[in-house]
Amino acid sequence: MKYHLVSGGCGFVGRNMVKRLLQTTSDTVFIVDDLSTGIHPSRWFPSYTMRRLGEVEIIGTEERVYFLKEDFRDFLFRFRHEPDFIAKKWIPDFVAFHDVYHFAAIVGGRAKIEGDPMMVALDLSIDAEFFHWVCTHKPARVLYPSSSAAYPVNLQTSQGAVALKESDIDFEKNLGTPDMTYGWSKLTGEFLARIAARHYGVRVVCIRPFSGYGEDQDLTYPVPAIAARAARKEDPFEVWGTGKQGRDFVHIDDVIDCIQLLMDNTGDGSAYNIGSGRLTSFIELIQLFCRFAGYSPVIKALTDKPMGVYSRYADMSLMENRFGWKPKISLEEGMRRVYEAACRRISEE
After folding, report:
1. Concatenated DSSP letters for 85-111?
2. What residues have CB less than 8 Å from 239, skipping those under 6 apart?
3. Is 342 helix (H, G, I), strand (E, B) or coil?
């Protein structure tokens, strides 16, 4: 029996990762999440049932999911003082985690990144504790999700948008300036991942996801929020900034596909883009959702609101050439799924 650890496993990416692991393996998944932004499994786990064992909830009829509501740093602190506490308290045959997926982080949209940058900087403490634990306990495989925010912002301006390629971040050269404290923390995490792989022999995969989205994403994120506003036929339709700023939108199913591919084929701490390779402006996104909704509103730019960098999209040639990987879900198909989910939410209100 293999045991996998998913930190932040109740967040958007984490819970989709948990579902996929349950679908594609016969293994047991241990989730740690303090629910500061995550959603309790009772709201997303298929056919939810639960029995409690002390602090842990054992979920599902097959009892393959263990959920602990706890700050991930406190969980790691327990290992430091009592390395065998999981076997003593909950899983008698537990020895070690095989795969570790580290999604625990302070997350949020542009308002969080620019409005509360010191809160976002707490990711530094989470990742420092995490990599210290990784290098001590050495799980078989580790996923560290970095971010496209780690790329230098001077490559993401309105003057000649360029597709960002993995080699644009080179730790042997001038790194440039990433996007606010969030970008700095993720860049630091990547550096720690390289150290773990090259100096401690840990198999680590780093990913740089671009603008991931999906049907079950929190409404504080732009894609589901825009979809909901279109479903309600908002007019005028407000957009932060000019609306001409663009992002690379990639569906969560494709993100999880890519993670599983990389976990099976890499591990030296190198980072890989996960995106579509296509730049889509927020005005284009609004127009797409409004087309689904069957109306044409006036789009009103709110230039006093945070807008972030002007252009951020991925060069996907490395993933295509090395692994033959491309996203399967088109922008139109993925956004239609999000729109239909938004309509269902509204009808249930």
Report:
1. HHHHHT-TT----SEEEE-------HH
2. 282, 283, 286, 299, 300, 301, 302
3. helix
Digit-coded pLDDT (tens) for 222-270: 999 999 999 999 999 999 999 999 999 999 999 999 999 999 999 999 9
Written as one letter, the residue type at 270 is: S
Cα 248 vs. chain centroid, distance in angstroms? Answer: 14
DSSP-H helix ranges across 62-164: 72-81, 85-89, 110-115, 117-120, 123-137
Q: Which residue in this structure is represented by tokens 């079950």?
A: 216
CATH of 3-214+250-277+313-328, one of 3.30.70.20, 3.40.50.720, 3.20.20.190, 2.30.40.10: 3.40.50.720
Per domain, the residue ranges of the chain are: 3-214+250-277+313-328
Provide DSSP, 184-214.
HHHHHHHHHHHHHHHHH---EEEEEE-EEE-
Burial tier of 106 (Cβ tally within 10 Å: 0-12, 13-18, 19+):
buried
What three-state secondary structure class fits 344? helix
Supply the pTM of this predicted model: 0.94
Residue 234: CB atoms within 10 Å: 17
Give which of 230, 346, 341, 247 is closest to 295, Cα–Cα. Answer: 230
